[in-house]
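Sharing a chain and its predicted structure for anyone who wants a worked example. Both blocks are below, sequence first, tokens second.
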Amino acid sequence: MQSIKLSQKELLEALDLATQRHEAKHVSVRDTGPRMTSKYETKLVDFIGDIRYKPHFLGLLGEMAYAKATGGEINKEIYNRGDDHTGDVGRVEVKTSTWMGPDIDLKITQREVEDIENQPERYVLMKVNESNFSEVEFIGEISRGDFIKKATKKRYKPGYPMNYILDGRKLDKNI
């Protein structure tokens, strides 16, 4: 696995963008739904200050690390209803996980894969450890077509969305 180190300046930029992305949402949906929250203090939680920004911050760490490794640029546009779904770094959709087990999966909701008009060309999976969040690990990437062919569908709990799931060990390892 390749690790990409983010500078203090890049971390502060990610926090600024995470704050803007969160606050751009309408107040009726801004702090609702499932969130990645911590019941304990971590270096990441201490750094961001407001736990509400954590999902956007984690996503931005993955996006920024992938862009840094590939010479790309992240989409810095702020949307009030989600992005345009074409990709986070060019036509690449970056997914970031905090799962530390060896069985890390690339998960994309069925709605995102099937029902959205604009689609990325590739999917990338990145991993962030909350204790050492300035180093982001590249797990792998895959074309959208191959992802759809290889992934299985899974619903984690009743009432949760259906997801396309692919084991991270089946992703292309070259960045």
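Comments welcome. The helical segments are 8-24, 27-30, 43-48, 54-70, 110-114, 144-150.
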